[in-house]
């Protein structure tokens, strides 16, 4: 019988990271704060950082290597 969080490939000898790391890239403070609260209150999610600009995103994403990046659509038009 497997313990919670174990898979067939893991017999329990090595702990499995079960949280999903999230980086927020949102320039609108109210939305950023709301998403931060949701992520921090959700089991299985771990907030690794919040950025407000595309430049910060380009700097921090490679450093933090998050599993998921939530990006403001307005970042697409920035250069």
Question: What would the keywords be for this entry?
Answer:
29% helix, 3-stranded parallel beta sheet, 79 residues
Approximate strand percentage: 15-25%
pLDDT averaged over residues: 83
What string gives the helices and strands in order? EHEHE
Strand order of the largest sheet: 2-1-3
Largest sheet: 3 strands, parallel
Radius of gyration: 16 Å
The CA-CA distance between the termini, in Å, is: 53 Å
Total count of helical runs of at least 4 residues: 2
Query: SS-based structural class?
Result: alpha/beta
Helix content: 25-40%
Describe the structure.
By secondary structure, the chain is α/β, with parallel strands linked by helices. Helices cover 29% and strands 22% of the residues. The chain is built from 2 helices and 3 strands; from the N terminus they run E-H-E-H-E. Strand 1, helix 1 and strand 2 form a beta-alpha-beta unit. It is globular and about 35 Å long.
């Amino acid at each position: 019988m497997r313990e919670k969080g174990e898979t067939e490939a893991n017999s329990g000898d090595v702990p499995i990271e079960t949280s999903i790391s999230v980086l927020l890239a949102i320039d609108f403070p109210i939305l950023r704060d709301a998403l931060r609260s949701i992520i921090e209150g959700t089991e299985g999610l771990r907030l690794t950082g919040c950025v407000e600009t595309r430049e910060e995103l380009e700097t921090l994403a490679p450093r933090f290597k998050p599993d998921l990046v939530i990006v403001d659509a307005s970042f697409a038009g920035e250069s």
